[in-house]
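User: Hey, my collaborator sent me this sequence without any context and asked if I could get a structure. I don't really work with proteins. Can you help?
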Amino acid sequence: MIENSAKANEVFNTKYFKRIVNWKGHFINAFANIPFMGMGINMEHFININVRMTPAESLSNPDLFM
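Assistant: No problem. I've predicted the 3D structure and written it out in structure-token form, which is a compact way to encode the shape of the chain:
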């Protein structure tokens, strides 16, 4: 996983921009973010699904977070 957005953009532009890429994804896990009482529910990030893509960008982290 690339945490630096400038580096992520550089990698994306070098590897994928204006190219056709075929990936297959494999479900890793899913979990719900249970809010604390009184904090409300952030529906944008209530359910998280992690997917490992083939080819993968990382051997230890999911490639896609939904």
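In plain terms: The two ends are 14 Å apart (CA to CA). You can pass these tokens on to your collaborator as they are.
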